[in-house]
Amino acid sequence: MAKGDPRKPKGKMSAYAYFVQTCREEHKKKSPEIPVSFSEFSKRCSGRWKAMTDKEKSRFEDMAKQDKVRYDQEMMHYMPGKRGKKKDPNAPKRPPSGFFLFCSEHRPQIKAQYPSLGIGDVAKKLGEMWNGLTDANKQPFLMKANKLKDKYQKDVADYKTKSKAGGVSMGMGMPMANCMPPKPMMKSNMDDEEDDEEDEEEEEDDDEYDDDE
């Protein structure tokens, strides 16, 4: 079985996945010598998760949000190996979201302030900054993203129209059979028709001869 791209960013984790990871670490610290079956451990974690309040779960949900920011940021820089049909370079490019516009504006500031941070850590910092903004502060980025989205949809419609127009054949929509010139008559057919004409002339001569008699 073929392996996936090793350069592809690690998938984002859910809040529950972070909770299970925490439970596993707690068990290793408290009882490292006691093995626990996977099914039994999963049931315990599921029961504890269902009994938790929203406030208790919020810690893990915040971790999941930050990891999603990390994943989205890394996917922006990830260039998968292309297979099969190549993408048309003239096709419209997808517009960035409001969050990505925010990141583009503030990423240089974070890199200058924390030059030792990697891509994932920079993404987490940007995610924390974005989550800390009020709706009013997010609005300029979201409005700009919506305008770019509207323009993208219009460009896609124009692109599809031009692509269809470029695919029309030289026959102006007529079937190919109607555009083909008539086939030349074969020599054997021409000879047959000439023989028929000679036979008809001979028959006419015979009729005239009979009338004279």
TrEMBL record:
Residues 191-213 have a biased composition (Acidic residues). Belongs to the HMGB family. SMART domains: HMG (SM00398). Residues 9-79, 92-160 bind DNA. This is High mobility group box 3a. Pfam families: HMG_box (PF00505), HMG_box_2 (PF09011). Keywords: Chromosome, DNA-binding, Nucleus, Repeat. Its main location: nucleus. Residues 164-213 are annotated as: Disordered. It is found in: Chromosome; Nucleus. GO terms for molecular function: DNA binding. InterPro entries: HMG_box_dom, HMG_box_dom_sf, HMGB. One of its GO terms (cellular component) is chromosome. Residues 9-79, 92-160 form the HMG box domain. CDD domains: HMG-box_HMGB_rpt1 (cd21978), HMG-box_HMGB_rpt2 (cd21979).
